[in-house]
Amino acid sequence: MSGSSVLLSVQPSRGLVDEPFRVAVAHLPPAEPVTLHCLHRSEDRHLWEAYGHYRSDQAGSVDGSEDESFGGTYTGKERMGLLWSMRPVPGSMRGLRLRKMHVDTPMVVLISVYRGHLTEGFRERPPMASVVAERWYLAPGVKRIEVAERGVIGTFFIPPGPGPFPGMLDMWGGGGGLVEYRSALLASHGFAAMALKYLDPDKSVDSEVGIGYFETAFQIIQEHPQVMADRVGILGLSFGTAVALTVAAYSKIARPRCCVCISGSHVYPINLPRDRMMLEMARNEGIVQMDEENNVIWRHRILPITKDPNLKVDVGRIECPLLLINGDDDQNWATVESAEDIANMMSVAGNKHLLTTLTYPRAGHLIEPPFTPHIRASNFIVHHTKQKVVLLWGGETKAHADAQEHSWKRILTFLREYLYIQPSRASQAKL
């Protein structure tokens, strides 16, 4: 779309959220200062924005992929800065987090170009040109299937085509509820992924995290006619890591082919007796720190990492490849220290060759799919007390964005390596 003679384009204007786009402006005067601006209205009706300051070249063009931003919410050559540096507009309520809750609709962003280097007042003045772009978690042809069987609640996403496909059990953290967008994106990349609801905000934790629930969910994935039963992995973030490690170490029913664990720990395995786990967690309830903005810091609650083997997953029992992903500025959980202890335990047990650890400098707790806006702190309802707090997740925006982009590529590579059936030598010889 254009305003006057200025031409603004976004290519592709419709794509997956992890697919980079190119924003370009043409027909500007040479050396013209302009601001590229991105505006998004979330599903909970809050406005988010990002912007960068550019100067046109001698041909009157700006290329957001190649040109430097001299200021704004991001600087330097940052092709996707208009997405990952989005933040609530000035005057928004505290503690917001941007999450897609309805994956059957796109994330819609309005990208505009303004004359001059602006830092505010974008909605009060007309842009030179604007264009609407759509970013999807759900690729065309991916099937979304609601699951409510054998006591398991979730959503299954099946890639297009006859299959069979490798499967994934996908679990988020202690915030509870049913979160679908990562599973939808995994299915868009060829994995039959189930987003699992395992902590209900309206119920007690005691009845929600028994290992049998996860074993049943794993079996439901295996039994689907479009899934390779022997090629099912587990992905967990935060508390989902404790679930993934517990299942991998102890279950005789659910035998994952590989596991990906993001920003979590092996402390407090879910196969502990309920009263024992709750007692141990309650003992650490008071080990909470606050930053200067009264954001709650939880990482000290499991420090130092316990030496009691009964309070940790025995990761020496794990027999499948394990990928750990952490940020070294995680302020929510002691993930780096946990990863070090996991490595030591696996080394002693002789299975450390199965472990790959990625630790990202200046990244925080919420390591999500690429170009997700970095959230340093946000509202959180503590599951067992129903208390609302603002948790500090940590991370620096640019470094965290880099960690998300790099780790997602590594996750997909890891899953393809261990979940796809490799062609036999005879088959390769025919190619």
Automatic annotation (TrEMBL):
Gene name, Swiss-Prot/TrEMBL: Baat
Single Gene Ontology BP annotation: fatty acid metabolic process
Listed Pfam families: BAAT_C, Bile_Hydr_Trans
Cleavable signal peptide: none
Taxonomic source organism: Merluccius polli
Acyl-CoA thioester hydrolase/bile acid-CoA amino acid N-acetyltransferase domain location: 18-149
BAAT/Acyl-CoA thioester hydrolase C-terminal domain mapped to chain residues: 211-420
Protein name as it appears in the record: Bile acid-CoA:amino acid N-acyltransferase
GO MF: fatty acyl-CoA hydrolase activity
Protein family (similarity comment): Belongs to the C/M/P thioester hydrolase family.
SUPFAM superfamilies reported for this sequence: alpha/beta-Hydrolases
Active site positions: S238, D330, H365
PANTHER family found in the cross-reference section: ACYL-COA THIOESTERASE 17-RELATED, ACYL-COENZYME A THIOESTERASE-RELATED
